[in-house]
Amino acid sequence: MDLRGNQITLGELWDNPSSRAVFQKKIPMLAKHPVKGAARSVTLEQLADFLSSWVPGMLINSVMQDLKRL
User: Fold this and answer.
1) Quick one: 30 exposed, middle or buried, by C-beta within 10 A (0-12, 13-18, 19+)?
2) CA atoms of 1 and 38, how far apart (whole Å)
3) Global confidence as pTM
């Protein structure tokens, strides 16, 4: 999947069943978060920066690699 230099939006990723499945598998709390709808314009880069305070860097890297493989 072309992540466009990590500038792809969460809305675009959530609209794609394959990329949504990556989030549901690796970071299920994100897929169920109540502000998910409001975060549609957040970029993947912004999400990674935000998540770095909450989840291990290895997990973020794993998600990014899985998305790139799609």
Assistant:
1) buried
2) 23
3) 0.86
Tokens 């690699």 map to which residue? 65
Look at residue 62 in the predicted model and tell me its pLDDT.
96
Predicted pLDDT of residue 30:
79
Residues 6+ apart with CB under 8 A from 14: 20, 23, 36, 40
CB 3 within 8 A of CB 68: yes
Tell me the C-alpha distance between 35 and 28, whole Å: 14
Q: Which residues contact 27 (CB under 8 A, 6 or more apart)?
A: 51, 55, 59, 63
Counting as low any pLDDT under 50, the low residues of the chain are none
